[in-house]
Amino acid sequence: MAKVTKVYMYETGQLKKVYFTDENKPQVDTYIKDKWQVIINKIAKLMSVKASLINRLEDDHIEVFMMSHNQSNPYTVGICDPLGQGAYCEMVLGSKKVFKMESIKNDLVWKESAYASINMISYYGLPIIWPDGEVFENFNIDLAPSLKMKGQQYWT
């Protein structure tokens, strides 16, 4: 049976129930982790971003499960953020959809959030979901200062 927790949806100001991975699901083995590591490293390099991460949802927090190995990455595996703060990741996990923030400075809802004060201006996240609909983790890219880098825009 799936575990359940609540995430804070910053845009609506509401808590949302999320069903996520329990111990009955397959574990991520070394082979898969190695493949994921290659992917997140390549994304960070190709996009010249600060960090590319895979975060895991737990009962009361989101934990950095894997991270890109680039010099600008300020994260470490195992760092946890408590749920209920309205993190970008919570939006991804609660909606089970892609969440993108091109520039927090231009967003009427988010420009007053804690992210503005720590200069996390741009973000792209997508959920990793089991076939039965349970949330496994989320993949995200922390970008600074803007997604419009090198004359390109990374999403439409």
The N- to C-terminal Cα distance equals: 37 Å
Average pLDDT, rounded to a whole number, is 87
Radius of gyration: 15 Å
Topology, number of strands: 8
Low-confidence stretches: 149-156
The helix/strand series, from N terminus to C terminus, equals EEHEEEHEHEE
Percent of residues in β-strands:
25-35%
Number of helices: 3
Looking at CATH, the homologous superfamily is GAF domain
The portion of residues assigned to helices is 10-25%
Structural domain count: 1
Can you give keywords for this protein?
two-stranded antiparallel sheet; disordered C terminus; 33% strand; Beta-Lactamase; six-stranded antiparallel beta sheet; alpha+beta; globular
How do the strands and helices of this protein lay out in sequence?
Elements: E1 3-9, E2 14-20, H1 30-47, E3 51-57, E4 61-67, E5 80-82, H2 88-95, E6 99-101, H3 114-117, E7 122-129, E8 135-143
Antiparallel strand pairs: 1-2, 3-4, 3-8, 4-5, 6-7, 7-8
What does this structure look like?
With 156 residues, the chain is an alpha+beta fold. It has one domain: Beta-Lactamase, CATH 3.30.450. It contains three helices and eight strands. The strands form two sheets. It has a six-stranded antiparallel sheet, with helices on both faces. Strands 1-2 form a two-stranded antiparallel ribbon. Strand 3 and strand 4 (61-67) form a beta hairpin.
What can be said about this structure in brief?
The chain has 156 residues and is of the alpha+beta class.
